[in-house]
């Protein structure tokens, strides 16, 4: 073996260089969350500044009235420091520091669960991106189909024959001349990238790609002997198959007969290089127009039955042949056409239907013949009556304006090169603002996998380069697993929405309570320690509880969010505002009339009232957390006991709340409550649930 290049100069190196060029784009959710966090932070800062200004202005007014505005004491400074502490607490409550935690928790949880569903996530953010996907560009072979190929039909000497395991070789070859059968065997066994070996227990094993395996199996079916055929001639030159030429060729030196070239590959490409054909008696006759039309019709007939078609041809080379020369590619004699069946995977049709109902467009991008691609796309439910199927060379010739019209309707691209796939993905992302998922298995798919928002590489048939540039590896090479990944992605998105809804409700209430109370009474009912505990409930524990909700089948019945959808939807705003108003009314009522209602008097009455307000506020959050399990459905208890994390977090919150109130009085500024006061606090919190259910009945737009 002669090594010509190493490192970055090899094809692998060049490919890896193109992959490392593109920077890491932010995922659609990251972009939206950055916006949400910034807005919440700004609102908190605004409220803090206003609160501080109002309190300081009150102090100035008091000093002005007393006429002591020029003399300032240490007490005044301490008062201003207290005001500043209130302002800082408002900012602390407002800033959603639990958001990154919720996102990471949700992604990590999804990633772990997806591993059980045969999907290995390489980049954490990919879990969520798949939930926003609006289009999937899928390979055909091995993803939509099983990649277990067998020759089921063949056209030899102008006769179309069925090939089946039950059929006998003698019956198949009965009306085909021996010389032609011999030529088919020679072509199949010499012009191959596969091999036939004997295992230790004496069984025949065929090695090679699924296509090569199918053709070699056909050669054995014809009664050929692989070893004998290989030894009967000498291999002079091999041109391996590649996706650009779509053919493979060899030159053989036959003892006493000179040189012979054999070629096999994409049917229309090989047929174009033929000018002769073997007739029914095995003689070489010129390929006239009627014969050519008959062969083209046969190829179309095979393709319309969802068969991959390959042509096999040979050419006698006159004179000598030097291995340095390229293999000639014209003047061939057609030996035959084979139709290879690659059955559609079970469950693919249902998965495509789920994608369609979920608003995800599935497009097939394949190197196969257009008729085969169309037949399989129809069988899978990808190609519809108003959809367009196009060939790669034709797609390449289209102008930007034509592509603008074509791409939205494009459902199948056949005979495509890796760069066609890359172009399609680039257009879908940049021009149409789609969130694109791409499947690929070959090294040449790497640019498209890298260009896409989410690259899905095949775990079994995929090459190392494809896996390296993918975000998720589909371990069982099955399209149905891709749908599961999309479902988990949506679950992540919805879980983070639930968490943000829950957190914003707490933020809004805590902000308004402290702000209005500070402005009207000059002090805040919730102390810094209490606010930090509330902050912990809604940030850390809330993230744990709501970020680990498993997905439901309903998620795949709604349309994808895509790149442009609002993260905080109208439904969320409705729930946030409704719940916030209820909680604010409860707390304000307790603050103004609590002493009278609970008959509080004496020196600890203010402390008891503030403890009651704090306790009621926390229980409002506990029950609101249960209501947040579903943003639109009234029954929020469905499956609650299946989520151990949620039940655990809720139990810990309640136990720790009892501990804070009953035993941490001096630290948390609380006072032990009577059982009637506990009952009242829990009841006020629980009332939030029927209120939340009633709010969900108010119709709002989905966005």
Automatic annotation (TrEMBL):
Enzyme class (EC, first level): translocase
UniProtKB keywords: ATP-binding, Calcium, Calcium transport, Calmodulin-binding, Ion transport, Magnesium, Membrane, Metal-binding, Nucleotide-binding, Translocase, Transmembrane, Transmembrane helix, Transport
GO cellular component, one term: plasma membrane
Subcellular localization(s) per the UniProt record: Membrane
Coiled coil: none
Superkingdom per UniProt: Eukaryota
Principal location: membrane
Catalysed transformations (reactions): Ca(2+)(in) + ATP + H2O = Ca(2+)(out) + ADP + phosphate + H(+)
Assigned EC number: 7.2.2.10
Membrane topology type: Multi-pass membrane protein
SUPFAM superfamilies named among the record's database cross-references: Calcium ATPase, transmembrane domain M, HAD-like, Metal cation-transporting ATPase, ATP-binding domain N
InterPro entries: ATPase_P-typ_cation-transptr_C, ATPase_P-typ_cyto_dom_N, ATPase_P-typ_P_site, ATPase_P-typ_TM_dom_sf, HAD-like_sf, HAD_sf, P-type_ATPase_IIB, P_typ_ATPase
Positions of the Cation-transporting P-type ATPase C-terminal domain: 524-698
Gene Ontology MF term list: ATP binding; ATP hydrolysis activity; calmodulin binding; metal ion binding; P-type calcium transporter activity
Transmembrane segments: 39-60, 80-110, 571-591, 607-624, 644-666, 678-698
Keyword Transferase: no
Function: Catalyzes the hydrolysis of ATP coupled with the transport of calcium.
Family: Belongs to the cation transport ATPase (P-type) (TC 3.A.3) family. Type IIB subfamily.
NCBIfam families: ATPase-IIB_Ca, ATPase_P-type
Protein name in the entry: Calcium-transporting ATPase
Lineage, highest ranks first: Eukaryota, Viridiplantae, Streptophyta, Embryophyta, Tracheophyta
């Amino acid at each position: 073996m002669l090594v010509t290049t190493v490192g970055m100069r090899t094809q692998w190196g060049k490919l890896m260089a193109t992959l490392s060029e593109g920077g890491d784009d932010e995922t659609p959710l990251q972009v939206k969350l950055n916006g949400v966090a910034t807005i919440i932070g700004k609102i908190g800062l605004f409220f803090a500044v206003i609160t501080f200004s109002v309190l300081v202005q009150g102090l100035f007014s008091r000093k002005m009235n007393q006429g002591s505005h020029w003399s300032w004491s240490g007490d005044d400074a301490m008062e201003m420091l207290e005001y500043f502490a209130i302002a800082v607490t408002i900012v602390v409550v407002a800033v959603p520091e639990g958001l990154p935690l919720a996102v990471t928790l949700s992604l990590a949880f999804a990633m772990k669960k997806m591993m059980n569903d045969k999907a290995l996530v390489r980049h954490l953010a990919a879990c969520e991106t798949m939930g926003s996907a609006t289009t999937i560009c899928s390979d055909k072979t091995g993803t939509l189909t099983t990649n277990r190929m067998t020759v089921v039909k063949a056209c030899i000497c102008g006769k179309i024959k069925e090939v089946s395991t039950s059929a006998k070789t003698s019956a198949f070859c009965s009306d085909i001349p021996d010389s032609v059968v011999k030529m088919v065997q020679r072509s199949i066994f010499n012009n191959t990238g596969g091999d036939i070996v004997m295992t230790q227990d004496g069984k025949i094993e065929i090695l090679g790609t699924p296509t090569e395996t199918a053709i070699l199996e056909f050669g054995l079916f014809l009664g050929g002997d692989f070893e004998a055929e290989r030894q009967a001639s000498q291999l002079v030159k091999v041109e391996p198959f590649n996706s650009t030429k779509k053919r493979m060729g060899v030159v053989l030196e036959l003892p006493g007969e000179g040189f012979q070239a054999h070629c096999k590959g994409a049917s229309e490409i090989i047929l174009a290089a033929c000018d002769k054909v073997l007739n029914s008696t095995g003689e070489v006759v010129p390929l006239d127009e009627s014969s050519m039309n008959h062969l083209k019709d046969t190829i179309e007939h095979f393709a319309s039955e969802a068969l991959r078609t390959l042509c096999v041809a040979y050419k006698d080379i006159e004179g000598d042949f030097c291995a340095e020369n390229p293999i000639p590619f014209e003047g061939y004699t057609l030996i035959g056409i084979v139709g290879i069946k690659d059955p559609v995977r079970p469950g693919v049709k249902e998965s495509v239907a789920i994608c369609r109902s979920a608003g995800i467009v599935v497009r097939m991008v394949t190197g196969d013949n257009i008729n085969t691609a169309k037949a399989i796309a129809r069988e899978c439910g990808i190609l519809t009556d108003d959809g367009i199927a196009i060939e790669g060379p034709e797609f390449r010739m289209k102008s930007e304006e034509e592509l603008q019209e074509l791409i939205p309707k494009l459902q199948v691209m056949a005979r495509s090169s890796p760069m066609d796939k890359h172009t399609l993905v680039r257009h879908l992302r940049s021009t149409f603002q789609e969130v694109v998922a791409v499947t690929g298995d070959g090294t040449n798919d790497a640019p498209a996998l890298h260009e896409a928002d989410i690259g899905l590489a095949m775990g079994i048939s995929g090459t190392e380069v494809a896996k390296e540039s993918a975000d998720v590896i589909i371990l069982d090479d099955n399209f149905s697993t891709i749908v599961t990944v999309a479902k988990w992605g949506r679950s992540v998105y919805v879980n983070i929405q639930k968490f943000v809804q829950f957190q914003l409700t707490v933020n809004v209430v805590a902000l308004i309570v402290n702000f209005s109370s500070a402005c009207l009474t000059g002090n805040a009912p919730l102390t810094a320690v209490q606010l930090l505990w509330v902050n912990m409930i809604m940030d850390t524990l809330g993230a744990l509880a709501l970020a680990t909700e498993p997905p439901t089948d309903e998620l795949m019945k709604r349309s994808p969010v895509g790149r442009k959808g609002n993260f905080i939807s109208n439904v969320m705003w409705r729930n946030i505002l409704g719940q916030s108003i209820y909680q604010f009314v409860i707390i304000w009522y307790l603050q103004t009339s609590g002493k009278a209602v609970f008959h509080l008097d004496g020196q600890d009455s203010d402390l008891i009232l503030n403890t009651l307000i704090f306790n009621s506020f926390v229980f409002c959050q506990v029950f609101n957390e249960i209501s947040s399990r579903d943003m639109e459905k009234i029954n929020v208890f469905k499956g609650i006991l299946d989520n151990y994390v949620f039940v655990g977090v809720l139990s810990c919150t309640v136990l720790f709340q009892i501990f804070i109130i009953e035993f941490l009085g001096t630290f948390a500024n609380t006072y032990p409550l009577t059982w009637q006061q506990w009952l009242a606090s829990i009841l006020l919190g629980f009332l939030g649930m029927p209120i939340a259910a009633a709010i969900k009945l108010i119709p709002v737009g989905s966005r």
